[in-house]
Amino acid sequence: MGVGVVRLGLPREAAAARAVSADERLEALGSQWVRLDEAVLVWGQSDETARSAGLRVEAPSEEPAIEDLRLVTQVGRVFERKHPEVRVVLDKGRHLVVQLGGEQARRIDRENDVCYRVRPLVAGETVFCTVVPPPGTPEPREKALVGAVSRGTFEGYLTRLAAFPTRHSLSADFETAAAWAHAELERLGFTVEAVPISVESGTSMNVIAEGAGQGPGARGVVIVCAHLDSVNVDGGPSAPAPGADDNGSGAAAVLEMGRVLSGHSGAHDLRLILFGGEEQGLFGSRQYVEGLPTGERSRVRAVINMDMVATLNTPEATVLLEGAAVSQGLIDELAAAAATYTRLLVQTSLDPFNSDHEPFIDAGMPAVLTIEGADRGNGNVHSAEDTLDHIDYDLALEIVRMNVAACAAALGSV
Predict the structure, then answer these.
(1) What is the band of 15 on the pLDDT scale with cuts at 50, 70, 90?
(2) What pLDDT, on a 0 to 100 scale, did the predictor assign at position 16?
(3) Is 262 exposed, middle or buried (0-12, 13-18, 19+ CB in 10 A)?
(4) Nearest 5°: phi and psi at 163?
């Protein structure tokens, strides 16, 4: 057998049927596979090996050579729109396996587009998968904080942010939006500062709010963040870019978490950050991390990043938790919080890409992106069409509840 695809089924289906787990079936295939949730690309196997593992192989109509396949990770549908000529072998939305060889691969590599990444396949890699952690027993303090999450205040924050004609990092509207967020965080009781950053040939800012913990002696810090800027890729700084989902939803979620956690009684410090320059290439978060002294980096217990949390692209309300090996403990905490306090379907990935969790991970800090499931299904981002009309408040609030519970756990108690 050359290249083919097998279907594992999702964990809930396997549990209901008391079927052999996906991991057990993959063991029979050795390492010549790449998993994208329930779909597994396999190569170099015999049909008998697959059948013995209880798997049926689907062969593509035109079977490519394995050395010509690449993994694409994209924002929305950017790669597909820019390269409709590239053959997609396996389509899983945010992640694609495509056929790219020779000069075509080298040409696309040279584009260095910040909205997608193309890399070789890694044998034996699970790019992302659905997990079903068992629900825990709600902890009284966490339950109270989760219960304090309000649609009214979240909707008010998001409506205000989406009302700006644009929040392009180099626009006057971004400055006004940042000043409004700064004032709101101060009103909530945080110590707030605006820190200038360089974005390409201009200047923007990060808004950073501090809330002290109650623990004695040396304290850690928990960071909750999102990017404040928006962009219209077909226009300049003045082009309409309401950015309701990308990323008014994440910024509004930071403010709502700040409201719920203001004056918190946890042991450790809470830091809220609204980054500028994300859409141009993570300028705000990269400069923030680069400027952190070693001692300050060692204080970071968890980084929860929110980017696009309010468009329902799937039949069930779904969240993707994306990090790296250093983030695994935090991913597990978030998944457990989702199972305990929400109805979210949880997917996980250790393949971080193109949001403000990446610089923290690169510096060895546990950071996780929380993002709506199947974000590729949201075709409105980076355009004038990213408006409040497409917002699903129920999904957004479930993701906020998960994050509040996990943040409260990370802050600890005294």
Answers:
(1) very low
(2) 46
(3) middle
(4) -80, -15
H/E stretch holding 103: helix 102-111
Class of domain 3-129: alpha beta
The model's pLDDT over 331-370, given as tens digits with 9 standing for 90+, comes to: 999 999 999 999 999 999 999 999 999 999 999 999 999 9
* CB-based contact 339:134 (threshold 8 Å): yes
Give the C-alpha separation, 251 to 244, whole Å.
10
DSSP letter string, 231-245: --TTS-TTS-B--II
Bridge partners (DSSP) listed for residue 368:
304
Let me know: does 211 contact 344? Beta carbons within 8 Å.
no
Helices (H), 163-310: 172-187, 250-261, 283-290, 294-299
Range name among 10-24, 97-111, 142-156, 224-238 with the lowest pLDDT average: 10-24
Domain ranges, ordered by start, for the chain: 3-129, 140-411
**How far is Cα 54 from Cα 162, in angstroms, rounded to an integer?**
50
Task: Measure Cα distances from 156 to 5, 162, 324 in Å.
Answer: 46, 10, 34
Cβ contacts of 373 within 8 Å, gap of 6 or more: 313, 314, 317, 318, 319, 320, 345, 347
**Topology alike, domains 3-129 and 140-411:** no
Question: Which overall architecture, per CATH, does domain 140-411 show?
Answer: 3-Layer(aba) Sandwich (3.40)
pTM above 0.85, yes or no: yes
* Reduced DSSP (H G I as helix, E B as strand, rest coil) percent helix, strand, coil of the chain, to 5: 35, 25, 40
- Residue 148 pLDDT exceeds 90: yes
